[in-house]
Amino acid sequence: MRVSKAVFPVLALMAVAVAVAMAGCSSSESKDEQRLTAQRENYCTQLGAWQKARDAARTDASGDDGTDTVARDALLALEPLRDETVGQGRTLAEATAAAMNNADSDAEGRLVQYCDAAGFETLMR
């Protein structure tokens, strides 16, 4: 009888410790997921701004269109996401570079699909 009286409190403490540890993990995972979602939203917002600036520059003959500045903002937003894949063996960084530097419409299409899958398709042109 003595053993069972001693075992119960130990088991109860272990159960509490496990519950606390699991709650900490899910909280951390939740914050990581929120941060990732915010990073994706920022990237898609900046990429959409670059698309608009690029399209406006095509029709504006004034010269200084600000497209380079907007492109830099998109590249800064890309940094934490650079290694995410977008299909055909390309990373987000590779597809972004191809779209911005080489006017690669296939790469740009993959970026639009990436933002669509992340839930931010309305931020794109």
TrEMBL record:
Q: What keywords are assigned to this protein?
A: Signal
The protein depicted here goes by the name Lipoprotein
- Give the domain of life: Bacteria
Organism of provenance:
Streptomyces liliiviolaceus
Residues in the signal sequence:
1-23
